[in-house]
Design brief:
Radius of gyration: 25 Å
Oligomer: single chain
Structural class: alpha/beta
Helix content: 25-40%
CATH architecture of the largest domain: 3-Layer(aba) Sandwich
Number of domains: 3
CATH superfamily of the largest domain: Thiamin diphosphate (ThDP)-binding fold, Pyr/PP domains
Strand order of the largest sheet: 3-2-4-5-7-6
Length: 571
């Protein structure tokens, strides 16, 4: 490998080394100062390059690819505010522990703070949200330079995929010439390791549980008949955790994005059950084992106060405790630890405690289904329930923040064969469309999404990818013409300015939006039409949008009726 000038040398060397480390996807937001990176990425056949003109959409596309594949993905841009537009995705990657390698091109030092175009202070632009920041330095034709660039690329890859995984930021200043034309000095030899291996290899890190940790957790589980497994959003092997719950005869209260809402111990209607004061009082646990980031259900948060003994298991020892209720955190891979604890338990053949939760969940589920199926009207709860029910095995379901993820949590029945993902780090709606399409690009599984109208509009530019990439994804969009979640919040008690400040009706025709971006669009007028619409959209291919229109006031009323129906069933 040789390069004609220092800027080409830096970009070519780093791209080659990242490919050796294992990078297979990169997303580029085009610009001039990043030209060496762009050309190096385009010229490397080992890396699939996706070009997106909107920087925010580009960064969330990379985020989606990294979430689906669990590997570091490169996202690169030019200098100036382009780099600032990556910030929301960097924050989500930080909080959701998603591996990203962010490379921002920059002006060389002599052009900074001089009024030069597209020049801002990019040093540590993302603050503490990155696992590693490095100012790469202006490239020079020194013999030892390629060794430094390769080592830094390996360190970036290792930091992004380490413990905890997350984003890294490399700020790369380039001097002209920015394209492969001869500069001053002789061409630079850039060769890496002769065997094609990375310059520096870093083995994978797994938080293996200690013998003391296994014994301590096993003792607490064995001593607690009235125990619960509570699972929030996480990316772990669910089988050992479910096996532990089965052996201990404990109910599992799991958010869909945990992967643990499966099997006979899973209680899907726990949110409605815990609204019932009598049930909650009768079913106080004496111990709770927690994994993942919970927090969708307010009733569950109130139920699990600091008086309930709780242990959190997290591979990185993350402090996932907004309620300040957990009395111990065990830093270990939850699947490895739970698998060992399950082996150490004697097991319970029957448990009145588990039977009580299962019976209540069965009655609650029947009450919910009876009310939702009483007519054929489209509703947000039924859409969430039916979408999760009818998707094929092996599918991805990406769910937007705000009401969609809460409805899925409240109404999705336990099932296997469905991978549920979402931006549950910062829980923002920004970048949702691009995240979905990134997930679709990174996997061969059929990809579906449950979105609100604001989630679609907030990242409408993400739909531009439908014209440039062969990507298949089906968006199921609940359109209530505004922000439906605010109707459940105290703001709704102040009607004078509610619509303007919180409801924010937009009146945008989603069908026209789909046509603008070359996407398919259909409307579901009756709830029973959704399964057929899903099948037709999937068969059509490309990016498809299925729209279901609802009313925000009617949605609040339906949720209240559902809680009432569960209460009646329990009484």
């Amino acid at each position: 490998m040789r390069a004609l000038n220092p800027s080409q040398a830096l970009a070519t060397t780093m791209v080659d080394e990242l490919a050796r480390c294992g990078v297979t996807h990169a997303v580029l937001a085009p610009g001039s100062r990043s030209a060496p990176l762009a050309m190096a990425l385009a010229g490397d056949s080992r890396i699939a390059l996706h070009v997106v003109i909107d920087e925010r959409s580009a960064s969330f596309l990379a985020l989606g690819i990294a979430k689906a594949g669990r590997w570091p993905v490169v996202v690169a841009c030019t200098s100036g505010t382009a780099a600032a537009n990556f910030h929301p995705a960097v924050i989500e990657a930080h909080l959701s522990r998603t591996p990203l390698i962010v490379i921002t091109a920059d002006r060389p030092p002599e052009l900074r703070d001089t009024g030069a175009n597209q020049t801002i202070d990019q040093i540590k632009l993302y603050g503490d949200a990155v696992r590693l920041f490095a100012e790469v330095g202006t490239p020079e034709t020194r013999p030892e330079a390629p060794r430094y660039w390769r080592s830094l690329a390996c360190r970036a890859y290792a930091s992004a995929s380490g413990s905890p995984p997350g984003p890294v930021h490399l700020n790369a200043p380039f001097r002209e010439p920015l394209v492969p034309v001869a500069g001053d000095g002789d061409p630079l030899e850039l060769g890496g390791r002769a065997d094609g291996e990375p310059w520096t290899s870093v083995g994978p890190s797994r938080a293996a549980p200690s013998e003391a940790g296994i014994e301590a957790v096993a003792e607490r589980v064995a001593a607690s008949e009235r125990g619960l497994v509570v699972a929030g959003a996480c990316d772990i092997d669910p089988e050992p955790v479910l096996e532990l719950a089965h052996t201990a005869s404990w109910p599992v209260l799991a958010e869909p994005a945990s992967g643990l809402r499966a099997g006979p111990n899973a209680v899907s209607a726990y949110n409605a059950l815990l609204h019932h004061e009598g049930f909650a009082a009768r079913n106080r646990p004496d111990f709770v084992l927690r994994v993942g980031k919970a927090g969708l259900s307010r009733s569950l948060s109130r139920f699990l106060g600091p008086d309930v003994p709780q242990v959190l298991i997290d591979a990185d020892g993350a402090w996932l405790d907004p309620e300040r209720s957990i009395d111990a955190i065990v830093a270990a891979d939850p699947a490895l630890l739970c698998g060992e604890v399950a082996k150490a338990l004697p097991g319970r053949i029957t448990s009145p405690w588990l039977t009580s939760w299962q019976g209540a969940d069965e009655r609650a589920g029947a009450a919910i289904d009876n009310l939702l199926d009483a007519d054929d009207a489209v509703s947000e709860p039924r859409t969430a329930r039916d979408l999760a029910r009818y998707l094929p095995n092996g599918a991805n379901l990406v769910v937007a923040s705000s009401m969609p993820v809460r409805d899925l949590d409240s109404f999705m029945a336990p099932r296997t064969g469905l991978r549920v993902l979402g931006n549950r780090g910062a829980n923002g709606i920004d970048g949702f469309v691009s995240t979905v399409l990134g997930i679709a690009l990174a996997t061969t599984s059929p990809t579906f999404a449950l979105a609100g109208d604001l989630s679609m509009l907030h990242d409408a530019n993400g739909l531009m990818l439908a014209r440039t990439e062969g990507v298949d994804a089906v968006f199921v969009v609940v359109n209530n013409d505004g922000g439906g979640i605010f109707s459940f919040l105290p703001q709704a008690e102040f009607p004078e300015d509610f619509e303007r400040l919180f409801g924010t009706p937009h009146g945008i025709d989603l069908g026209a939006l789909a046509t603008l971006h070359g996407c398919g669009h259909s409307r579901v007028e009756y709830a029973s039409e959704l399964p057929e619409a899903l099948s037709a959209a999937r068969n059509e291919g490309g990016v498809q949008m299925i729209e279901l229109r609802t009313d925000r006031d009617a949605n609040v009323a339906l949720h209240m009726r559902l809680i009432g129906a569960v209460a009646t069933a329990l009484d």
